[in-house]
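Please, structure for the following, as C-alpha cells.
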Amino acid sequence: MIKAKLFIVSIVVLMSAIRGEAQNTHSKKPNILVLLTDDQRYNTIHALGNAAIITPNMDRLAKEGMAFTQAHIMGGMGGAICCPSRAMLMSGRSLFHVHQDGEYIPETDVTFPELFRKNGYVTFETGKWHQDKASFNRSFTTGDNIFFGGMHPPATGGQYRPKLNHYDPSGQYEKSFWGEEFSSVYFSDAAVNFLDKQKNDQQPFLMYVAFTSPHDPRTPPTWYGHSYTPDDVPLPASFMPNPLDNGELNIRDETLLPYPRTKPAVKRELAKYYSMISEVDFQIGRILDELKKTGKYDNTIIVFAGDNGLAVGDHGLLGKQNCYESAIRVPFIFSGPGIPKNKQSDKLVYLNDLYPTLCELVNIKIPATVETHSLAPAFGNGNFKGRDDVFFAYSNLQRAFVKDNFKLICYNVNGTCRTELFDLKADPVELHDLAALPRYKDKVAAMTTLLKKDLQEHNDFCDLDASGWGHPKKWSWDEIKKLNP
C-alpha cells in the first residue's frame, strides 16, 4: 500500500515537472510585437536626428535597440503604395511577385504571422489590413478593432469614425461597426486589452499593431499633449513650388494642396503631419507601458517601422508616388532580447527583410517563398554588410537605383524618358541633379546597366532599352491587376 502511494506521488511529481518544462519551453520563446505606422517617413523621429518633433516612445525604442537608418521600400504599381508594401512585409516576397499589387496573398505565400501561428504562437492583429480577409484569418488566431482598407475616407468621418471589425472566426466580417473616437485609440485599446489577457499565459504571442496614422486625413487630436503650429516645423530644404513631372502629379495625394505649393501651406501640412506622428507615439507608449506591466517586456522582440514614406513638401510633392528619399525610406527599429542597445546601422536594407529576420531570431525555418535577407547578423559582433544596392519601381513611370551613396532615377512620362543622378552623401536632400554633367556620364551609364540587371532579376515588365520602356502610356489599374493576378 505504501509502495502504491509512493508510485502515485512519483507520477504526480513527474507530470508536474513535465507540465512545468512545457511552460518553460513556451516562456523561453520570445514574444513578438510589430508596430507599423502608415505613411511615416524616415526622418520623423527625435532620437534619430529630427529636433523639431516630439517622439519619446519611438526614441525609447531607438535607445533600447538598433535602428536601420537606410531602410527602403521596393515601391508599387498603383498609388496606394502601402498595399504592396504591407503585402511584401507579410510575405517576404519582392515587388513583382506579390499579387494584384498586394491586395491578395495566396495560400502559397505563407505570411510570417501564419508561420509563427503554425509554430506555437498566439497571433493577434489590430488596425489596418490592406489585403484579403482570407489571408488575414490564416495569419491570426485572434484580433480586435480590425480595419480592412486603405484609409478612413473624409466623407464618412475620417480618422474620427473608423469602420472596424471584431475578430470573426468564419472570416466573413459582415458585422462592421463605426468607431466614435480617433482611430489610434481603438488600435492601442485592443493591443492593451490583449496584453492584459495574456499576462498569465505562458504561450508566446506575436502581436501586429498596424496604425492608420499619420496617413491623411490629417486631423490630429490635441488632448494627448503634443500639437504643432506651422512656426514649430522647418520647411523642407528641398521645397519648391512646382515639382518636375514624374508622370503622377494629379493623383489624390497630390491634390491635397493646389499648385504652385506655397511655404505657408506646406508648413501647415507638416504641422498636422508631425502632430499625428506624435499622437501615434503616445499610443505606442500605452502599449509599451502595458507590456512592461505584464512582466513580458524583457522577453519581447519589438519592431517599429513605417510602411512607406511621404513627401509633404519635398521637391514640390505631397505624396509617396515618387523616388525621392522622403518617399522610399522608412523608420525601421528592432529592440528586445539579443538586440544591441542604442546602435544604428547605415547599411542598405529593405523593409520586407523583416520576415526572415524574425524567423532567425526565434529559430524558425524560413520558407522557400521568402526572397529577402535576414538582418540578424547585424545584431552580432560580425561585420554586417547589408545589401550592395536597392531599387524602387512605380507603375511603368519611374525606376530608381541606389548604390555606393549614389541614386539614379529614371522616368518614362508619356513615352519620353529622362534621368536624374544624385550624390546622396554630398547632397542628401537631392537638390543637385548630376545626370547631365559630362564628368558623370560614365557613372550614369554604369548605374543604368546595374539597374537593368536588377529589373531582370526581379521580373520587371519594363525594358529600359525599348522605346517608352515598351509601355509608353501610363498603366491603368486594370492593367496593373493583371500583371500578377
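The two ends are 72 Å apart (CA to CA). The chain is about 30% helix and 20% strand.
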